[in-house]
Design a protein that fits this description.
Elements lengths: L2 E7 L13 E2 L2 E2 H9 L7 E6 L2 H9 L3 E4 L7 H11 L6 E5 L8 H13 L5 E7 L3 H5 L5 E4 L5 E5 L15 E10 H9 L4 H6 L3 H6 L4 E5 L10 H11 L3
Parallel strand pairs: 1-4, 1-6, 4-5, 7-11
Antiparallel strand pairs: 2-3, 6-10, 7-10, 8-9
Helix pairs in contact: 3-6
Length: about 240
């Protein structure tokens, strides 16, 4: 199966309008993400999926693949599924990389792709990173995940999970918002209705769990910093300077 990386990007971010084109050390954020992804060794195609002509034109000018998707696509998974169905019909594995992660680890993308390639039964895979600071585990803006001994997700939450009642020795994991999908699962998932847990937490991956699907968790050796608000762009610029 061929692997495609799709990077959903929209201009109308509520907290950071025009975010994909915001400059990070002189380069648009979306270009920073594309440069990281282009280092991957197990990827056959890379494309941005956007509903905005400004982003489309900017990516085209940078000579990377880009596709227009409808504004009706509500999520990154929807945009990736539309791209898979209309444009990338002969690809069997899709890696959804968020367009605001300029520090995404290329080797992590390769790991997700290889995991899907080697396991015929696996439908979906994502990533996590150990939380180092107690305050991060309590931060609702940092999504946490718990997984079983076989590495499959049990639950994702904005709340502190697990709740450590008796001060047991437990590890907390931050969810990294990168997903790998088999083609059939991606199209089925995007066509399904939102679930109760998904609406409660505003986390679309809970729809898969609530419908009985398994999500494999790959524990990353490196953290990934997303750019959600303008001040995050400054932090990302500082970290890029250290690479």
């Amino acid at each position: 199966m061929k692997t495609a990386v799709v990077i959903p990007a929209r201009y109308a971010s509520t907290r950071f309008p025009g975010k994909p084109l915001a400059l990070i050390k002189g380069k648009p954020l979306i270009l920073r993400v594309l440069e990281r992804v282009s280092v991957c060794k197990s990827v056959d195609a890379i494309a941005v999926a956007t509903d905005d002509k400004r982003i489309y034109d900017a990516v085209k000018k940078m000579k990377y693949g880009v596709f227009m998707t409808p504004k009706s696509c509500k999520s990154g998974a929807d945009r990736t599924a539309f791209t898979a169905k209309k444009y990338l019909k002969d690809y069997g594995v899709f890696i959804n990389v968020q367009g605001d992660e300029p520090l995404i680890d290329p080797s992590l993308i390769d790991k997700l792709s290889k995991e899907l390639q080697k396991d015929a039964e696996l439908e979906c895979v994502t990533a996590a990173y150990p939380i180092k600071h107690a305050e991060d585990a309590k931060n609702p803006n940092i999504v946490k995940v718990i997984f079983d001994k076989n590495g499959y997700a049990v639950y994702f939450s904005r709340s502190l999970i697990p709740y450590n009642r008796d001060n047991a020795k437990v590890k907390y994991y931050k969810h990294i918002g990168i997903y790998g999908y088999k083609r059939d699962f991606l199209l089925q998932f995007a066509a399904s209705e939102t679930s109760v847990l998904e609406r409660a937490e505003n986390l679309e991956q809970l729809r898969a769990i609530e419908n009985g699907h398994k999500i494999k968790i790959i524990v990353s050796k490196k953290d990934s910093i997303g750019v959600d608000i303008p001040s995050d762009a400054k932090k990302a610029a500082q970290l890029i300077g250290r690479l």
